[in-house]
């Protein structure tokens, strides 16, 4: 979660670590290097710096610790801060005053209690909460100014898009008052639906079948029927596990219907019923043939009579 929050390149990373942790044993420092290898957008803050002051007696000890030599690079300078010990029951104004006092006490200790002091020209701007606050404010202001042109261009693009959408919506509202235009739009919409439906029935891969298609089991669930009536065993047509729609799904349902039909058991029928049905069919065909023969004979008879009448005349 920490990596996902700190990975976007437009975000500043505030890396906080206690002064009691040595640079060589800092676990999160390796993670920070993965997120921001050059520390271009990282601000490193070492807290509880006052607890570490009593360990420094020589100038080189202070300068070595402040430089974090070998771990952050020559151009990366962390901030070293300390806060008041008791701030539970005081006002905000008093707390801010105490913070300033702690910064003054830390600098006084480095100047007076460390032999040779420290490299003030290089590190004095990195010691104290007030220096950290000043740097954060200036850094944020600088980054806001740098991002202003791109932000303005993005806002202008968004305004242009919104204006175009409003113009299009106004034209649609005006067209809605024209009956002929509404009729034309309805006909075009219906034609588009028919075209898309024909394309789906013929077979299409857009939209994606794996997203919008259904398996045989899903189709049965959505139909509300479940299983086929009169069939106790499951019916599994070909490609039953694939997500299909349109013509492919229709062909699969037809194949499923055939499979279900073949799974039905035929009822027991007596020989008498079978013979009776066959006799009825035979008698029907016999009388139809007789009728066709009679009609053909009548037609021939009348044709002969017409020929005789023409010969006499």
Automatic annotation (TrEMBL):
- PROSITE patterns membership: G_DYNAMIN_2
Molecular function terms from GO: GTP binding
Against InterPro entries, the record matches this protein to: Dynamin, G_DYNAMIN_dom, P-loop_NTPase
Q: Which domain of life is it from?
A: Eukaryota
Full protein name:
Dynamin-related protein 5A
Protein source organism: Zea mays (Maize)
């Amino acid at each position: 979660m920490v990596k996902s929050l700190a990975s976007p390149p437009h975000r500043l990373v505030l890396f906080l670590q206690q002064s009691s942790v040595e640079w060589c044993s800092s676990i999160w420092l390796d993670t920070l290097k993965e997120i921001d290898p050059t520390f271009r957008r990282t601000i490193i803050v070492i807290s509880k710096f006052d607890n570490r002051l009593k360990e420094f007696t020589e100038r080189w000890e202070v300068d070595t610790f402040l430089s974090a030599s070998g771990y952050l690079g020559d151009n990366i300078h962390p901030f070293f801060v300390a806060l008041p010990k008791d701030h539970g029951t005081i006002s905000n104004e008093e707390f801010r005053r105490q913070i300033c006092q702690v910064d003054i006490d830390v600098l006084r200790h480095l100047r007076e209690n460390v032999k040779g002091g420290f490299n003030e020209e290089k590190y004095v701007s990195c010691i104290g909460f007030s220096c950290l606050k000043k740097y954060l404010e200036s850094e944020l202001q600088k980054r806001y100014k740098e991002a202003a042109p791109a932000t303005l261009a993005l806002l202008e693009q968004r305004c242009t898009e919104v204006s175009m959408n409003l113009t299009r919506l106004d034209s649609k509202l005006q067209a809605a008052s024209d009956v002929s235009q509404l009729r034309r739009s309805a006909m075009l919409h219906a034609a588009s639906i028919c075209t898309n439906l024909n394309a789906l029935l013929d077979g299409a891969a857009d939209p994606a079948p794996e997203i919008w298609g259904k398996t045989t089991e899903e189709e049965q669930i959505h139909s509300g029927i479940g299983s086929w009536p009169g069939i106790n065993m499951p019916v599994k047509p070909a490609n039953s596990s694939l997500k299909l729609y349109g013509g492919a799904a229709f062909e699969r349902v037809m194949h499923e219907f055939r499979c279900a039909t073949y799974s039905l058991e035929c009822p027991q029928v007596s020989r008498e019923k079978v013979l009776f049905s066959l006799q009825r069919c035979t008698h029907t065909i016999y009388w139809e043939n007789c009728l066709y023969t009679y009609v053909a004979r009548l037609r021939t008879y009348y044709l002969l009579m017409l020929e005789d009448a023409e010969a006499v005349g």
